[in-house]
Each structure stands twice: as structure tokens, then as C-alpha cells.
Amino acid sequence: MKGFLQTKKDEMIGLLERLVNIDSGSTHKEGIDEVGGILKELYEELGFSTEVVEESTSGNNMVITYGENPSILLVAHMDTVFRVGTAKERPFKIEGDKAYGPGVIDMKGSQVALLYAMKALKEKNLRALESVQIVLNGDEETGSETSRPIIEKCAEGKKYALIMEPARKDGSLVTARRGVGRYSVYVTGKAAHSGIEPQNGISAIGELAHKIIKLHALTNHDEGVSVSVGIIEGGESVNTVAPTAAGHVDVRIRYAEQAEVIDAMIREICTTSDVPGTTITLEGGINRPPMVKNEQTIELLEIIKETGAGLGIEITDVSTGGGSDASFTSAMGIPTIDGLGPIGGNAHSDQEYLEIPSLLERTHLLAEVIGRLSAGE
Ligand SMILES: [Zn+2]
User: Is the pLDDT at 160 greater than 80, yes or no?
Assistant: First the structure.
């Protein structure tokens, strides 16, 4: 398989360049659909059947299948976090052993790896292809709102789920992720001139300040719980008592049981006003369950480790705070491993990079792992 992939190296980098140079930020439907269109054609050329699930505002999602009864689900997202114009400002480039560009590691490199793993299997292990089902989604970076039900439906009855987020900087796979919640706290007060009649005003900012302190106090690093107000907005002018204010809250949890508890505490905090006369509206909730490293994760990891050892790759694994679609399949009780994409780092920044030698190496690993898992049926 390695020899086959080596002959495809330039082609793989060419496709990577092509995909990176298309802006496909989560809100840029056109770009995501363009990426989806290219991949659709390439999978169909390989003999896969594709089903595009049209979405009205976010990028279309796609379900890709080869055989009748697939037992392994692979998930890879096509959207990035970058605004339109980024690819023009800093297009794909190679410096030494690294490739740069928006989404190069998160996760256009993974898209290339996944496609070429399929090509390698088509060449060497047709039976393995038949055990594969792929979901390419277009809204992962904003919480997988439209793709979650598709992923969950495809995951039903599968034996394994392999999620194509990049491997960590040190090459580690991901076996645990914290759960994620997003909330917004909207406060309404009453405007008044803060010089002439401040006594008639009710400060929404004052109220929000109390809420921020109470919300932050829910953080417990030992328990893996963090609550962080990452964005605040509010006020009209510096000499007006603020009539409105809002705080946007990021919540992380380590265990599924923490979801209900932390959600109830956040709601409790927002039911009463500290500044009399203000009203509070709370929106949001826990939207990704945690991915927990359980016994079946460990079993699957062992298989991947053995496969890696056969290729001379030492596989390590880590837990991370970031969310991904692995949470959905893991919460359904399906053995799930994430981080099967190439190695790289600095995702979501202008320093994002992919280690070029890992593109081939991890594609090879993925193909062998799928071969091994399908043979075990
Ligand atoms: Zn990602």
C-alpha cells in the first residue's frame, strides 16, 4: 500500500493545495459546497455512491458509501473557521517539510488522507471499502447543528467510528474530549443620562458583571469543568446608563453526568437579578457531550496501536478540551477514536501547518486500520 501511495504523493499535495485555496468558512456556504463538489466527483470516480443533503444556509452535508452494509463510520468536516478572503491573503504554501494555509490541517489535509486511503484500499483491499461509510459535513466548526442528526443516523449500528480531526503536534490520536456548551446571557436595564438623571437608569452592564463573576465561579479545573464568558457586549454611550448587555459563555465538562448539573446551575444564576429592575434572558445549552475514554475506546486504540507498530509508527493518545464530532458517536456507545488525520498544529490561527511527511504516513495508517477492522468482522 505504501508504494501505491508514494506514487500519488504529488497528486495528494496538488489536491491539498486546491482545497486549501478555496475559502470554506462555516458561514460561506458557497465555498463549502465547492469543496464538497470536488470531493463528490472524486469519490464517484472511485465507484462510491454519494448522497448530498442540501442545507439552506450552512454548507451541504454528504453521505458516501461503497457497499451495502458498512460497519465503519468515518467523519470529516469541510468547513473552516476562516473568513472569505483568507485564502487570497495567505494561500497554500510549502516551506521545508511543512505546508501552510487556511484549514490545511483542520481539516483539508484529513480530506486528502481520507480520499487517498480509499484509493489505496480500492487498489489493494476492495473488501475493506465495502465496510466504509463516510460523512462529510459542512458545519462542524459552528457545532454541527445540521450534520449531527446525519452523523447519528449513520452511526447507528456501526461497529466503529473513526473521526478525521488532525493528529496532535506530537502525532497523538485523541481518545477523550471535553463536552461543550454555549450560552448567551442577555440583560435588559433602563437607559438614562448618567450625568443628568443617573438615578432613573438601571444598568444592564452592572447586572451582567454580577452574572459573569457567578458564572466564572462555577469553574472547577480538578473536575474538568470550566465556564468562561468569552465575549461581552453592551451599552449605548459612555454617558448613558447601559440599557442592554450580553455575555457569551463557553462551557466545558469532562463527564456526561456534569451536563445536567452545570446547566441547572447556570439557569439558577440567571433566574434572579442582582441589580433590581433588570431582566435576564438565557439562551443555549450543552451541545456536545464529552467523549470519554472507556473500555471499548481502549480496545479500538489497541488495534490501531498494533497496526501502527506494523508500519513502524508508535501510536500515543491524548485527551483534549476541544470538541469534535467524535463526541456524538462516542456518546452513542460506538467505539470511537479521533485524530486520524495527518500531523500538524496551530489550527484556527494564521500559523496553522501540516507536516508533509505525515500526509502519506497517516493515510497509510488509516487504510491499514480500516483493512484490519473490516477483516475482523
Ligand atoms: Zn476540525
Answer: yes
User: Residues 52-57: what's their mean pLDDT?
Assistant: 96
pLDDT at 377 exceeding the cut of 60? no
**How far apart are the CA of 105 and the centre of ligand 1, in A?**
8
- Annotated domain spans of the chain: 2-177+290-375, 179-288
> In angstroms, what is the span from residue 212 Cα to ligand 1's centroid?
29
Q: Are 96 and 37 in contact (CB under 8 A)?
A: no
Q: What is the Å distance from ligand 1's center to 107 Cα?
A: 5
pLDDT tens-digit series, residues 164-199: 999 999 999 999 999 999 999 999 999 999 999 999
Confidence of residue 322 (pLDDT cuts 50, 70, 90): confident
User: Concatenated DSSP letters for 9-29?
Assistant: HHHHHHHHHHHHTS--BTT-H
Classify residue 76 as left (phi > 0), alpha (psi -120 to 50) or beta: beta
Name the residue among 51, 50, 114, 47 with its Cα closest to residue 78.
114
C-alpha–C-alpha distance, residues 11 and 70, integer Å: 28
Output the CA 167–ligand 1 centroid distance in Å.
Answer: 10
Report the side by side order of strands in the sheet with 279-288: 226-234, 244-253, 179-188, 279-288
Q: Does domain 2-177+290-375 have CATH number 3.40.50.2300?
A: no
CA of 348 to the centre of ligand 1 (A): 9
The rounded distance, in Å, linking the Cα atoms of 193 and 197 is 6
Query: How many Å lie between the centroid of ligand 1 and the Cα of residue 242?
Result: 38
Three-state DSSP class for 166? Answer: coil
Q: Output the CATH code of domain 179-288.
A: 3.30.70.360
23 CA to middle of ligand 1, Å?
15
Ligand 1 centre distance from Cα of residue 187 (Å) = 33
Q: What is the CA 162 to chain-centroid distance, rounded?
A: 13
Q: What is the pTM of this model?
A: 0.89
In the sheet that holds 72-77, the strands lie side by side as 49-53, 61-65, 132-137, 72-77, 160-163, 336-338, 173-177, 317-320
Please tell me the distance between residue 103's alpha carbon and the centre of ligand 1 in angstroms. Answer: 8
Distance 243 CA to ligand 1 centre (A): 38
